C-alpha cells in the first residue's frame, strides 16, 4: 500500500489502496485518536461512495459512531470538527488530483491535522500488522447535515463592496459548487459549477496553467475585473486579473493584509511558507504585520499558525489559513475576503492588476522541477556554490534551503513523494533572475543520473 503520504492518505484507488485498506483505517482510527465519534465528509469522485461505505463500516465495527456530513468541502469538515467538538474527522477526497485518485484527510481535536509524523505512520503500521476484532457492540452511522449552519458561518465574510466587481468564477466541477450559488448568487458568471467527479472540463488543479485557460477566456469575454478558480475540494482558491494573467497565490497573502492589518487594525504574526515571495514580507511589514516563515503543507502550517497565534497565513499553493477559521484553510473564506478587498480597491480607482503589480517587486521563476534521485547531494552542491560566491543575508534550513542574498534569493526543496527537487529563484530584476536561474540549473544538473 503506497497511499500514506506526509500530509494525508492518497493515491490511485484500487491500485495504491482499496476498500479493504479503508475498512481497516476506519477500524483503527477510533483507537488511534481516542474517540468513539468520528466525523466523515466526502467529495463526488466516483469512488467516494464505496470508500465512504467501507470507512463507516470500519468505524462501526470498532464500536464507534460515524457522523456523516455528506457531500461537502474539505474546509467544512475542518469547521465542523472544531465547531461541534469532534476529536477525529475524515474527509474523503483527493483534492486536485485526477479522477482516478482518491484519499482521506484526517484531523483530530480542534481540526488539527494528522500527518505521517503525528499519527498516520502509526496507523499505517497498525493496518498492516494488527488483527481486526469486531467490537461486541457495534457503532452506527448518524446523519449530520450541517450545510445551512456552514453557509451562515461563511456569509459573515461577504461584503457589499464586492457588488461593484464583474466576477468570473470556475468551480472546476468540484466541491465549491455546493456553496457558491448560495454565497455569491448571480453576481459571478459561473464556469463548471456543477458537481462531476469525472472532472470533464479540466483537472481540478488550478496550479497547472492549462486548467486556467477557460477561466482566462471567460475573463476576456465578459470583461471581468477578476477571475476566481477553486480546486477539487475547495480548500484552495486562486485568481486571474482583469488582463487574464494568473496571479501567483503567495501574493494574496499580502493583499489579505489590507483587511486584517489595515482595515481591522490587528497586530500580530502572519504565516508564509518557505517559497513565498520576498515582496509579501515587504508589503505586510509596511502594514504593521510580522512575517513568520515555515514549512510547506497544511500538516505543518495549521499547527504553526496555532502555535504562534497568527492572524492568518498562506502558501504558494493557494491555501489560506485564518485564526477566525480555527487556524485552518478555507478557499471560500479567502475568496469572500479578497473579493471585498478588490471591490474596495475598484471603488478607489485601482484595478486588480494595478494592486498586484504594486506588490510584486521581484521577478520570479515560479516553481521549477528537476528529476534528480540524489536530492540531498544536489541541494548541497547548490548551497555551497552560491554561498561561496556571496555572503547571505538570511539562511533557512527547514524544508530544504532558502538562502537570501542582497538582490536575490532561492529556495530548493525535495518532493516528499517523488524523485524531484523543486526550485524557486527570485531577484530584483529580470536580467539577474535569468542569470541566477541558469546558473542554478547548471549546478543541479551536474549530478543528475
From TrEMBL:
Gene3D superfamilies: Alpha-D-Glucose-1,6-Bisphosphate, subunit A, domain 3 (3.40.120.10), Alpha-D-phosphohexomutase, C-terminal domain (3.30.310.50). This is Phosphomannomutase/phosphoglucomutase. It holds the Pfam family PGM_PMM_I. Residues 367-436 form the Alpha-D-phosphohexomutase C-terminal domain. Keywords: Isomerase, Magnesium, Metal-binding, Phosphoprotein. It comes from the Bacteria. PANTHER family: PHOSPHOMANNOMUTASE (PTHR43771). GO terms for molecular function: intramolecular phosphotransferase activity; magnesium ion binding. Residues 3-117, 163-243, 249-358 form the Alpha-D-phosphohexomutase alpha/beta/alpha domain. GO terms for biological process: carbohydrate metabolic process. Its cofactor is Mg(2+).
